[in-house]
Specification:
single chain, alpha+beta, N-terminal domain of TfIIb, GMP Synthetase, Chain A, domain 3, 2 domains, globular
């Protein structure tokens, strides 16, 4: 895939990865990482899955807005996107999955589903994960 890059950012992990620290080049992210309690950790820091779910939800909501602008549809106040990321063992190691819940109050169900489906085609996170992990998308109004 050819990519005309318009923005780059880097982050650096130190320590033990899941039990360490991450900092972005801008310094806007500067967080301790700790395994969650469910994985035997203290749960006192963030973790890669939490960061991924935050990034995916923000990116996907941006894609919803971009598609809506292109179609001259107003995104209703109160629109939200929640991305839940699961982590677990696979036959060859570890993996993740994602569930996207888009809530567009006030739109007709069919219109909301069409908007969300187009956002799923546009979103860079969706494009990066497509065919690599299971992603379930639901739309509510």
């Amino acid at each position: 895939m050819s990519l005309d890059v318009v923005y780059t950012i880097s982050s650096t992990a130190t320590g033990g990865g899941r039990d360490g620290h991450v900092k972005s080049a801008t310094g806007r992210i500067d967080l301790d990482t700790r395994p969650p309690k469910e994985m035997g950790g203290s749960g006192e820091g963030t973790n890669p899955e939490e960061l991924f779910s935050a990034g995916y939800s923000a990116c996907f909501l941006g894609a919803v807005h971009a598609v809506a602008r292109g179609e001259k549809v107003a995104v209703p106040d109160g629109t939200t996107v929640t991305v839940t990321v699961g982590f677990g063992k696979t036959a060859s190691g570890f993996g993740i999955n994602a569930a996207i819940e888009a809530h567009l109050p006030g739109l007709e169900q069919d219109a909301a589903e069409t908007l969300v489906a187009k956002a799923h085609e546009l979103c860079p996170y969706s494009n990066a994960t497509r065919g690599n992990i299971d992603v379930d998308v639901t739309t509510t109004v």
